[in-house]
Structures are given as structure tokens and as C-alpha cells.
Amino acid sequence: MKKLIVNADDLGYSKGVNEGIIKAYRDGIVTSTSLMVKGKAALQAVELVKQTPQLGLGLHFQIEDNDFQFLFQTKKVIAAVFTQKTKREFLNQIEIFKRLTGKMPDHIDGHHHVHRMPIIYIFIRKWCQENAIPYRGQIHFIDSFFGMPSTKAISITNLIKILNDLSEDASELMCHPGAVSPDLKSSYSNQREIELQTLTSKQIKDEIKKLKIELINWRDL
User: Fold this and answer.
1) Model-level pTM?
2) 3 state DSSP class of 29
3) pLDDT at residue 79 in the model
4) What's the confidence (pLDDT) of residue 82?
5) DSSP codes joined into one string, 116-173
6) Of 7, 41, 209, 213, which has fewest CB within 10 angstroms of its CB?
7) 10-66 pLDDT tens trace
8) What CATH number labels 3-220?
9) 162, 111, 148, 108: which is closest to 131 by C-alpha?
10) Which of 3, 89, 86, 102 is nearest to 53 (CA)?
11) Where are the domains of the chain?
């Protein structure tokens, strides 16, 4: 049977994002989410997920925009300094996650895929292996359900195509459902509401049943 993790990124980003993710879990196909521990709505997010213990919860590792740019610098000395800073920040966010939730994350991923940057990926992968925690990219990763540059990619039609094209092994589908709230400052806003509608549609749920896809989270691997 084909197995699928549907992971909602950006939990903690805003109140609307939090509420949208929880709705996508309760009324839709989302099985897992990842928390931005330094997000402005992180505390509300943690309170919400306490009410949904079956929802998978991982760390959505994030770094400051300036650090993100420096990690791509060609000068080795500059890159080395920011690599060490980023490693410390990763471990710091793990500790914040544990303090907020009372447990370790059940998986690791990164905002803008920062965890896969070559300069720090080896460190994060080693940490995950030592702690027996899976990370994004460890199984087949699907990033084609994303509403930029076109919202056609987050339509029911495209998601049905994705579901029909799943490989036989376990896969992860990345998504970003949410509602637009005043505290959401993002270039990816209205698309979140479209994603929410798609992920909670009866047509999608019926398609998953028809294809006999097993919805799982990272703990089920």
C-alpha cells in the first residue's frame, strides 16, 4: 500500500496559519506539521496541537535572512563563521522545541529548506541519525503542491495528479495551508487559503480512498 505523509509547514508563523493547519488536519488530509519555535504565534500553536495528539509535530528550523545569505558566500572564512552560528542555532531551537512541547520533534525540516544547505546538511543529518529522528529528504519528497508562480499547482486537479503519481514507497507531501490573519506578513498568503480548501475537499479524500493510500505521519515510519 502506498503511504503518504502530508506535512503542513510554518506552524507558529501566525494565528491564521495555526488555525488553518489544525483545520486541515481535523477536516482534511494533513497528518503532520512542523513548528517554527521562534514564530510570533508559536505559543498559540503549541496550545492548539495539545488538543490534537495524533497530529505529527516536527521542528521547522529557521535562520535569519542575513545568515541565510551568508551561508552562500564563497569566502570560506565568512561561511565557516556562519556555519558554526547556524549549528548553535539549530541546537538552540531543538531545546526551545523541547521546552515548549515537552518532547523531541518527530522529524526535522527547514524554512526555505535551510536544513538541506550543503554547508550544514551533514551536521543536521548526523544529529538526526544519532537521535533516531527522521528528516525531510529521507523519504521521497514532493514539493510540487505550491502556489507560486501559479495557483494551478494547488488546485484539486493537480493534487489528484500528484496522488495518482505516488511511488510505492512512503512519500512526504509538503503543504502550507492557513487563513489570512492580520499578523500574517508573507508573500504567500491567499495561496494558503486555496491550499486549505483543496486539502479539505471531499473530492481529495474520496480520491485517497479510491487509490487506497494510507495517510501516516513520521512516527509511523
Assistant:
1) 0.94
2) coil
3) 65
4) 73
5) G-HHHHHHHHHHHHHTT--BTTSSEEE-----SS-GGGGSHHHHHHHHHT--SS-EEE
6) 209
7) 999 999 999 999 999 999 999 999 999 999 999 999 999 999 999 999 999 998 755
8) 3.20.20.370
9) 108
10) 102
11) 3-220
